[in-house]
Structures
1.
Amino acid sequence: MIRFAAIRLVEIAAVLLLMSFVIYALIGLMPGDPIDLMRSADPRATAADVARLKALQGLDRPLFERYLAWGGHALGGDLGYSRLFAEPVTSALGPRLANSLLLMGTSFVLAFVLALALGIAAARRPDSRLDRAISLFCFAGVSVPTFWLALVLILIFAASLGWFPASGIATAGLGGFRDRLAHLALPVATLTLAGVGGYTRYVRAAMRDALAQDHIRTARAKGASEARVIWRHALRSALVPVTTILALSFGGLVSGALVTETMFAYPGMGKLIFDAVMGNDYNLALAALLLATATTLAGNFAADLAYAWLDPRVSYQ
Amino acid sequence: MRLPLALLGVIAAASFAGPVIGTGLGLDPATVDLADRVAGPSATHLLGTDELGRDVLLRLFEGGRISLAIGIAAALAAAAFGTTVGLVAGYLGGWTDRVLMRVTDAIIALPLLPLLIVLAALDLGKLGLPAWLVQSEDISLLRIVTLAALIGWTTAARLVRGATLVTRNRDFVRAARSLGAGVPHILIRHILPNVLAPLVVATSLSVGDVILLESVLSFLGLGIQPPLASWGSMLSNAQELISTAPLLAVYPGAMIFATVIACNLLGDALQRRFDRG
């Protein structure tokens, strides 16, 4: 187990290293580098000026050399300066990371609790009318375009009914707890509705498998109550695959709400990545994308570990 | 099975035949009528007109043509590439298999949407592609299909590899091998037919996924570019008029929703049918 974990960690480090170079190279291929921008801002700039600026910023050196220089600084904790936010990349990332974790964490817990209830209800009576209704709801959940769902919620609950604000994180100058909560309502609703369908399908499948096992029949034969059979016996074995899925979605906590955050102008990591890429903020885009990659890989790693830890039959020898 | 097939059939028929019939009737989805902008439903415009006075219904059909074409083309391309990788990895085994599966795992483990946004925003000229291609009207279409296929092939590769591992030691494959059949022959004639069922399921599911992906990218302004229009790009345009004409945003989203749910239900129904044998 420890050996397995160590090998996986080395692999993750290798993938991260490789991805840092790939992303670095890709960012350089985006339209409009910093020199282009300066040149369009100042029509009097000559070719000699451009060459001088390129040399000044090190852009005349080969890609790999520039990457190594960036990597050296990054390892020392210096991720550079964000053009878009006019502050160091690390201080631009911090608050937005916290915002995203709050948004995603809340939606995730809500979606999971709902999925547990719906999935168990559906698995107890397979092919009943309730099971079919829940299944259709799940299909709807995984098929709905998130940005459209967000738009419809805004139309109904913000534009028509006026119950909740449509964008931002807090009213300027107000910003109490209730105000923050009201601003979270619609983005959380969007993410919960978009996520619950997928989770429910996993819970239902895991519960059905669990309920079909011999030890469930034994428990019933011994006269255990239905509630005890479901919650103590079946759910326990059903939680093994479900936990794996949970750990996998942990990776999405950082960047998973890109579309939703953009729709609601919510200042989180997803919107930051989008804005940084679209705004040619190379340093910020690079750091944010790598952070997103690292958390996703960490989520996968957690899923593998959870799987082995919870199910004694799994061994990674 | 019948319901999703019927739904998909209606949407596809309307999308591919609609523009043709419209042209026959003298209606064109690109006709601009600035005197008749953002109008409600009428006898000439059943669903009203958009911000440039174009007929919304015809535009929906036209957008559907693009969205469906992208979905089908990318799903097929991903299935073809994934099948090749899966067959090679599963049949040859050893180092080839290990390397290919590591790459597959690594791609699955990446945060795809943020990376796709970078890929969709790349300056193709800087990649060294010829200018006639970069400036062509269809480049946004090609780019989306390529991107969707690039991230979509992993499902097919895993499925096919798994099925190949099971099949390659079955008696009829051994018999074929001992009769002197070459590797390509065995792969195509003996192994491929046995992995077809799960592949069909995965492909029908991935059509829906690609349509969703295309709509997201187009909505963010990184997908289909004018003069082409897809459901996603129509939604993106409609967003600016959300307070005056909310229905303009509701229609294309509803079309995406209906198409994707039909693809998913179809995939599920096929899966059940194959499971029963």
Note: The radius of gyration of chain B is 22 Å.
2.
Amino acid sequence: MIRSLRARLTALTLSCIGFVMVPLLALSGAKVVEEVDELSDARLAQSAKTLEAFSNHLGIGMSSAPVEVENWFRPKGADEATPQGHGYETQVGFQYWSSPSQLAVTTQDLRNLTFDAAPIGFADVTNAKRKWRVYTKIGDNGGFIRAAERYDSRHEIVRDLLLQNTLPLVLGLPVLAFLTKWAVKKGLQPLSETARRIDQRSPDDAEPLNAHDAPDEIAPLVGAINGLMRRVHRALDNERQFTSNAAHELRTPLAGALVHVGNALTMTQTDESRAALSDTRGALQRMTRLVNQMLELARWDAASSAKAMSDVDLVVLVREELSELAATVIDREVEVVQSFAPSVPAVRGWEGGLRVLVRNILDNALRYGRAHGTLSIEIQPDEWGVLLAISDDGTGIEASLRDAMFSRFQRGEGVDSPGVGLGLPIAQRIAELHRASLRLLDAGTGRGLRVEVRFPRGR
Amino acid sequence: MHVLIVEDDAHLGRGLEVAIKRWGNTSEWVRDGATALTLAKTVPFDMLLLDLGLPQLGGLEVLKGLKRDGVSVPVIIITARDATDDRVQGLDLGADDYLTKPFELEELAARMRSVRRRVLKTDTSNLEVGRLAIDTLSREARFDGQLLALSRQEFLLLQTLAERAGRVVTRDFLERVLYGETGIDSNALEVHVHSLRKKTEPELIRTARGLGYLLTENIVS
């Protein structure tokens, strides 16, 4: 079974053409043979009658020894009518018998043909190892006129005719095959068009495929795909909605707990209970971060790249986010090194999303970088668009473990205040929505991690 | 000041009451929008802490009601929602600030102080940030009530930072303010900062290396 519809259709169409054309050709060939035979027989009879007319007037047959006549010239290779003759002339011989025992005139090639070799009328005989068609006629003056034609020269005409009948078809067949292939491809274009449309869809696109545009034959398929997509999207939406609702519902009790712990911390006298409350507060803060990141991820998971984007100045945005994180920069006594190109093209995107992306990467760099260390931020135009690179000088991440950092709830190790493990997945998702690439690399300074985000050039 | 807490969650409401009392204020706590609206119309509260997700009459409806009845009271929205639309709508309806749950008590205290400062700002020449008080008219700065002896540029630097207390002010900006666009030996700024720290508290002005300086809102003595 051929797996390609196109190949199947082409093969089937060509087979059908062959199935009809081959018997038709055979039939018409047979007809040609028959017609040529009849035509030639008629000509033979005509020749005999012509000879008879001549013989009556010339009085052939008086001498006792037969007169031998040379065969006439048959022009070779000349197709059409020429002064010398015609290409379809055949080897024709004749005999004149004044009586059944007296041969008066014969052409050389029939010299050995006896009277009895052929009956009166049409007959097939073998003479000089060749097959001949012979016509014998009783003359008005009692003589017998005989005209004969070699079958092989007759067949030559048939061959020519057949060849010329078949040749156009033989030559046309490859053209026909080519055209059929083209036609099938053209005819199946709506199919590849639909396939292309399905292929190009982003997974967030819940919009059903237009079944009206699709050809009738694949409309049910498109309908089935739409149904499947609807179900998948409903399931996805439900999950996202649940995550979002759950996180939202956690916010108020968390706020309550934090307020109470805050109150309790100021009222408590003993160091022990202060420490316990401090730890409680730390845990609550961690939970707060987790809830916020879960909401962030749910929001960007649900976002679709179809949302309208605007031009965003990455340099301004990064500077603003750095100010937001100033408290951490101060606490960890980190030195921030900014190297921004003098002119950086705008990035096409959603400011809110890019803010979250930049904040998450900066946050990680501060969290996992060395205290008293350096945080380097680079923004440069590159051949593709804009490069944002943020490097820290912490312990970095082993190359083999980097991919895993993009899976949700995966945390870096060996840090006092580990994140909740959603920062990079969120950044990754936002980068994806911006058709940007996010990569984890060595910082190049012997230690630390370099996060590179490459944005495509804005329109 | 007298604060109206509008919060339907019992734990959070009670906690806020305790905290506000701890900060030397008084409060009333209601758990639904309709009561809050009635109460706000009759009692001259100094501030309203408003949850958006209230039963029946929602927080945004309360804001609309206050606006309709011409009740002017500073409002800080406290909500579990974080959709930007809600935030914009809330601020459009006259809310002064917006805090997303969960939050640290210190954050709430800072927001309340800042809103209060903005509302009470009748005399624009006075600037108070924690233990620091600046009179921009007479060019006097006091720390813990003690008059500081400052050069013209030190005063300008302190004022610029105090006006943006809690936020990082970039070196570039400070140099522009102090010396104009011509630019100077970058060391001069550090000398001034150092001098200001010596005259107040080392922790008052903090360095974000590579970024700029930040004046701490409330430093403990």
Note: Chain B touches chain A through 33 residues (CB under 8 Å).
